[in-house]
Amino acid sequence: MAVPSQIHHFHFSNCLMNASGVSCERKEELAALDDSAAGTFITKTATLEAREGNPQPRVETFALGSINSSGLPNQGLPYYLQALADFQAAKPDKTYFLSVTELEEEKIYKILEEVEASDFKGLVELNLSCPNVIGKPQIAYDFETTDRILKRVFSFFTKSLGVKLPPFFDPSHFDQMADILNAYPLAYVNCINSVGNGLVIHDEQVVIKPKQGFGGIGGETIKETALANVHAFYQRLRPEIAIIGTGGVCDGRDVFEHILCGASMVGVGTTLYEEGEGCFASLTEELEAIMKEKGYQSIEDFRGKLKYMD
Ligand SMILES: CC(C)(C)CCc1c(C(=O)O)[nH]c(=O)[nH]c1=O
């Protein structure tokens, strides 16, 4: 029971995977994902050194989703490179994802130089939702910084690289970002990261401790924004740049819709957080039932074929 997919020469036995950040910080969590119905996994975004992250409570769920200000808690790059080497040795034919970022521009180059020098064979995801300079927006909302970073990264980086993008909400931003991304040999873009700086209130109080309760929103409530970002980039990017659709996946229909919008792989975050890795099997069953009912044999029968009203 699976719906296979691929990104370039990387084949995946199933089109579902976790969203970076959820159930993927420690090796034991990655092992559970590795043994699940998911076609692959992506690590929690790694930084050069391990990080504690923000004070708890820092992740909470609410009726229609989740909010988090985790603060990049991770075990540090060496931990993930070693873990990935072990997973790869056990399953030589499987492809995995490593997510990385850093909190200053120069360190972004340093961490990618370390990944480049490693034996990692999978795909690398550069998380562009990181704040760069204090007082400036996150990298992906600063177009010239994004362009400068990608230009310098691709002057030395030869492994397969994708970028994780926050949501955009304006056609001119889709246009500007797509123009930048199309200039680089990216393997894929992953749309979207959580919807930044939401606020969840219970009674009269915020529900997470960091940032006076402000945090990234995920789950059911962000699906329409996620689908729009997947499709907007599908419409604009060169076909060589694949799209991973992440955000708002609660059932098989949501997976189907991400693929209809152009996604080749679909990331699951909040639902994985709430249901555990068994969600991949149920999402796959639901997707297969929809495909059967519609007579679709494979993803390519409907990927990107969203119909407009003429
Ligand atoms: C928000 C950052 C801490 C700068 C990056 C890590 C991250 C986090 C996080 O670790 O707080 N949460 C998200 O929903 N998306 C992210 O990309």
Automatic annotation (TrEMBL):
Localization (cell): Cytoplasm
Main location: cytoplasm
Domain Dihydroorotate dehydrogenase catalytic: 5-291
PROSITE patterns per the UniProt record, alphabetical: DHODEHASE_1, DHODEHASE_2
Pathway: Pyrimidine metabolism; UMP biosynthesis via de novo pathway
GO CC, any one term: cytoplasm
E.C. number(s) listed in UniProt: 1.3.98.1
Gene Ontology biological-process entries: 'de novo' pyrimidine nucleobase biosynthetic process; 'de novo' UMP biosynthetic process
Gene3D superfamilies: Aldolase class I, Dihydroorotate Dehydrogenase A, chain A, domain 2
Top-level EC class: oxidoreductase
Cofactor(s) needed: FMN
Subunit structure: Homodimer.
Family named by the database record: Belongs to the dihydroorotate dehydrogenase family. Type 1 subfamily.
Name of the protein: dihydroorotate oxidase (fumarate)
Record organism: Aerococcus sanguinicola
